Recover the amino acids of this structure.
């Protein structure tokens, strides 16, 4: 048993996995890197489609594009430490009909080459896929400069851009395949560390559609990235306290699954969002925008609260920055209070 | 004739005549719009005319013709020139020039892929075009396509760091089907380039980055033709043409004056300019609107 939850977001999905309390986290969860999913998917894409080209800014092994480089050296472009150039070289490749995937750390992909992403890639709506590795605080010892926590805010504010934040190895693999099929620029955010595998190769994945990973009636926890696992853990703890929480994997902050968010607001009446990202303009912000315009309900946002990261072990940092199941539980209890007694 | 598919390879006399028409287009559309850049379009007029009416293998009626060469103005602000070249070459009707920067036209202030047919990649933030051209050149190499790739840059633009990232990249990958053209008019918005942020010795900089550097008078059409021939014939390294020009070239009161970088002539000033170019606003705007 290596997976903890089956996606049940589609209509008519099997009832047993939707039923209250049917999801049990195993004693030992398989751990795997999301970036491995990115690297493996690129090789499979390369086999299927000769238009796939991969660019990297001197981080082949860190971003795991070295698999592609070994298999398809003629379609692999080493750009060196020049992210701005890389973004625009990818644009030129896309203009000629290629499907370029570029890979670097998220801190550089989203911030250092933001102007190139906006003016050259997005304004032209070119088919460039941006692989932002080492997202989030869990990068650990490298510290604040390398802990990308602004990608969702930056990318989703740019027209034509999509951004996907997969939760585990399999979802990163599928998000990478989906990005290649999607016409237009896509940013894929993934991490450095081994993280719990909560989906399997058959879990449904559609860019722009959230998945209900576990049902619940009192509130909805809407999460992305590694926080999906924390949300599932929180759901168990809340169940012990008599609170029934729905867990939604909202892997695509843009385009946003507004219909699912509205449904969660209407059906559960309270929402907690959870992301390993800055609170300003991130997943919580995106969900809030949808909620206030469709069905306003009490919300709490679990995220990094407007501060830079620091060096430390990933686990220490997740604890210190309030990105654990217990923090989601606390937020859920706050939101339940507000739901019961609106101020 | 100008709409024909392929490389036109016009001779110098025809190019000289076309360059005069292009200058008239530039002044007329700026006079109409009362917004936009005058100086750079006029300094780049000859190099642009040679590129579009001699050098480029393109099909204006089919902008994505698979056999086409690729051209890109990294200096997106010279749209008065870019659109004039495109219209004269047959990408769209000349009358569209009379809606330059207008809400109800396609001719955006800076070139836009989704607005103007034939603009393949939007531009406007300086320093990015050479990188785009590197990507195009790499795609062509992967496809074993004989495409040539041309990137027009500004001299002030050389201050952008990304230019040198792209320069390094092109030389590293020996992109000898890539040709840069620098409109070296020595002026930028705030004044003389050498006063604002010196770029000299520019030729030496490019040579030290392992490029083939060709220098010429950017208003001398035979010299430009020779420069493009030299670039085309060079193997193993990308080429860059340093085209020495005069900002505002062709209009007496604009020439070599940085204050004309970013503003259009008022209507009375435009009449003086068009008179110097042997026409009038009434005559030339009527020509544009009729086509």
């Amino acid at each position: 048993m290596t997976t903890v939850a089956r996606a049940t977001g589609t209509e008519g999905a099997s009832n047993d996995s939707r039923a209250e309390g049917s999801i049990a986290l195993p004693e030992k969860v398989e751990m795997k890197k999301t970036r491995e999913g990115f690297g493996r998917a690129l090789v499979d894409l390369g086999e299927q489609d000769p238009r796939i080209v991969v660019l990297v800014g001197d981080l082949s092994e860190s971003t795991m594009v070295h698999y592609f480089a070994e298999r398809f050296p003629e379609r692999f472009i080493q750009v060196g430490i020049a992210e701005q150039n890389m973004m625009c070289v990818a644009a030129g490749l896309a203009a000629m009909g290629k499907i370029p995937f570029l890979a670097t750390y998220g801190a550089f992909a989203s911030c250092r080459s933001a102007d190139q992403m906006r003016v050259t890639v997005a304004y032209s709506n070119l088919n460039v896929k941006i692989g932002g590795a080492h997202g989030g605080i869990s990068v650990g010892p490298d510290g604040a400069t390398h802990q990308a926590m602004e990608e969702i805010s930056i990318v989703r504010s740019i027209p034509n851009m999509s951004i996907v934040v997969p939760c585990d190895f399999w979802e990163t693999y599928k998000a990478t395949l989906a990005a290649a099929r999607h016409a237009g620029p896509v940013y894929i955010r993934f991490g450095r560390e081994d993280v719990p595998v909560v989906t399997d190769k058959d879990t449904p994945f559609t860019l722009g559609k959230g998945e209900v990973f576990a049902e619940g009636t009192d509130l909805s926890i809407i999460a992305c990235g590694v926080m999906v696992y924390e949300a599932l853990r929180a759901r168990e703890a809340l169940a012990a306290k008599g609170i029934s929480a729905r867990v939604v994997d909202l892997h695509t902050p843009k385009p946003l699954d507004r219909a699912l968010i509205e449904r969660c607001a209407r059906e559960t009446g309270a929402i907690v969002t959870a992301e390993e990202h800055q609170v300003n303009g991130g997943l919580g912000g995106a969900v809030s925008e949808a909620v206030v315009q469709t069905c306003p309900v009490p919300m709490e946002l679990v995220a990094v609260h407007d501060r830079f990261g620091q060096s430390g072990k990933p686990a220490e940092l997740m604890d210190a920055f309030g990105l654990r199941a217990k923090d989601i539980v606390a937020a859920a209890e706050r939101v339940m209070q507000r739901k019961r007694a609106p101020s | 004739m100008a709409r024909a598919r392929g490389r036109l390879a016009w001779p110098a006399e025809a190019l000289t005549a076309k360059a005069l028409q292009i200058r008239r287009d530039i002044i007329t559309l700026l006079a109409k719009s009362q917004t936009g850049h005058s100086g750079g379009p006029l300094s780049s007029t000859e190099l642009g005319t040679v590129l579009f009416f001699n050098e480029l293998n393109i099909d204006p009626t089919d902008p994505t013709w698979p056999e086409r060469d690729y051209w890109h103005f990294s200096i997106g602000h010279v749209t008065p020139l870019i659109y004039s070249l495109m219209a004269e070459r047959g990408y769209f009707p000349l009358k569209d020039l009379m809606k330059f920067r207008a809400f109800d036209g396609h001719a955006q202030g800076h070139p836009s892929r989704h607005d103007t047919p034939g603009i393949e990649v939007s531009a406007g933030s300086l320093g990015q075009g050479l990188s785009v051209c590197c990507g195009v050149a790499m795609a062509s190499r992967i496809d074993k396509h004989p495409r040539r790739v041309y990137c027009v840059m500004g001299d002030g633009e050389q201050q952008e760091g990304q230019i040198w990232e792209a320069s390094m990249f092109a030389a590293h990958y020996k992109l000898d089907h890539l040709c840069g053209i620098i409109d070296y008019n020595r002026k930028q918005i705030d004044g003389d380039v050498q006063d604002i942020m010196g770029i000299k010795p520019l030729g030496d900089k490019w040579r030290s980055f392992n490029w083939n550097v060709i220098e010429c008078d950017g208003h001398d059409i035979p010299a430009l033709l020779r420069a493009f021939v030299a670039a085309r014939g060079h193997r193993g390294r990308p080429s860059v043409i340093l085209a020495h020009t005069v900002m505002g070239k062709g209009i007496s009161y604009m020439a070599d004056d940085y204050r004309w970088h970013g503003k259009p002539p008022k209507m009375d000033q435009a009449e003086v300019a068009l008179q110097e170019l042997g026409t009038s606003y009434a005559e030339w705007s009527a020509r544009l609107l009729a086509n």
